[in-house]
Amino acid sequence: MDYVKAATDTGSETFIPIADRVATFDNDGTLWSEQPLYFQFFYAVDQIKAMAPKHPEWKTTQPYKALLENNMPELMKQGEKALLQIVATTHSGMTTDEFDTSVRQWIDTAKHPVKKKLYKDLVYQPMLELVKYLQANNFKVFIVSGGGIDFMRAWAEDVYGIPKDQIIGSSIKSKFDYNNGNPVIVKLPELEFNDDKDGKPVGIQRFIGRKPVFAAGNSDGDLQMLQWTASNKLKNFELYVHHTDSVREWAYDRKSHIGTLDKGLDEAIAKKWAIADMKNDWKVIYPSDK
Amino acid sequence: MDYVKAATDTGSETFIPIADRVATFDNDGTLWSEQPLYFQFFYAVDQIKAMAPKHPEWKTTQPYKALLENNMPELMKQGEKALLQIVATTHSGMTTDEFDTSVRQWIDTAKHPVKKKLYKDLVYQPMLELVKYLQANNFKVFIVSGGGIDFMRAWAEDVYGIPKDQIIGSSIKSKFDYNNGNPVIVKLPELEFNDDKDGKPVGIQRFIGRKPVFAAGNSDGDLQMLQWTASNKLKNFELYVHHTDSVREWAYDRKSHIGTLDKGLDEAIAKKWAIADMKNDWKVIYPSDK
């Protein structure tokens, strides 16, 4: 609140013109949970299961076999190429409208295997409040996530109150098809942009064209975004969400298989960036805890 | 005005919720002039001339030789590869900040060889008014141009009143460099995205994530954007600017080497899209004509 006051007080030397009030938030692990696997991967798993009756060959073909048998150790053993195959199968070969409809149906009904809640209810109440608070002070809030841009846009506008065009993420290629006067855009099985690590400042420059004055993340994948923000000549604020609550959420950092926070934690401490200790700083984690 | 009234009247069956009021404008030939060459190419020419003293070898090397000798026929004979080389020389190998500074200096001082006015004064007054009118009615206005995204963002925010993150264009690749704690983004000599023709709806989907309800262009390069907009189930409006004024601006359409309007003109007539006849419909072309 001190930062926002210093940024918005027209009499202050640290006043920031409205056009420069750009705030960027990571999504997985920063705005909603990401354990035991990125939620977008659960979407892919659910889609494979729904598609399986039309693909009897998957019963004997990896990586589908392992997935359909819920054999996660075997699935992980298949490696990154197999995971990309699952993503390609579930995220391409359809129009953007069809994909959007599919994600919307899933987000409205699918429940997290551990928390037994809708995925969209596993968002962080303090971060929702932070987004709203910044917006109320004329900050333009963006999501800058390694997650899929089309996946997030299907639900994040409603859930976070952030417009679709302010949601940036990883993407696969797509093509326009005039389709005899009923034009569609078709999603292709080829990576276009990986919005993680070095990719985050690059994505910010490409989509926003302006260096943020505020950035929030939770992992080493967000470090470059925070470094980029910290290099702003205008007064800036860097925040790391630290997952310290093994009871209400999950506790993990330096050695986690997802959302590793190691170099980032060292740099945050060295540079005195803000660190939100979920266990001790947050009265409420999820909106339903209120 | 009938369209905007129908779109914003809450009692109307054609009412459009604010979040869906997306308007996309081409830039070259739609918001400012583009003859006898795209203005961004004049920028490249001016940069080559400024850089020439440090590159004595250019006096004898094509395509630089032709350019430095103002030998346009010879330069054109060098073909597309040579033009791309000139663009790469002047648009990459520097940081995004350095490029931005260079374009700003140019746009504030460089004059058009025929009109003898600043390039930024060769914008269309009626289109400026249209952009403002849509914005005043809660339309979110975007530029979707084949021109360079970083080139436009250096000046278009000020000149058109359209925020940088709502300016979409063609791009070259870039990379993040931590640079010992003074991070920069460096522009690389490799095409990333061509925001023209089929690329326009693809760019709209990638950057905006929502189909427009309003689109304006002036050439066949905008046709797919207008087709995409026309396929919106919400009430939509398509506009072609037709260059018909050889005295106050330029007159060209079906056979022009730049901004060709041929198939688009046929389709506009067949589908009764709006066509702005610059000679007969516009009292004023440039702001200085007022």
UniProtKB/TrEMBL annotation, chains A, B:
Q: InterPro entries recorded for this chain?
A: HAD-like_SerB, HAD-like_sf, HAD_sf
Record has Nucleotidyltransferase as a keyword: no
Q: Which cellular component appears as one GO term in the record?
A: cytoplasm
Kindly state a single biological-process term from the GO annotations of this entry. Answer: L-serine biosynthetic process
One of the Pfam families matching this protein, by short name: HAD
Domain of life the protein comes from = Bacteria
Q: What is its EC number?
A: 3.1.3.3
Which GO molecular function, any one, fits this protein according to its record? Answer: magnesium ion binding
The name of this protein is: phosphoserine phosphatase
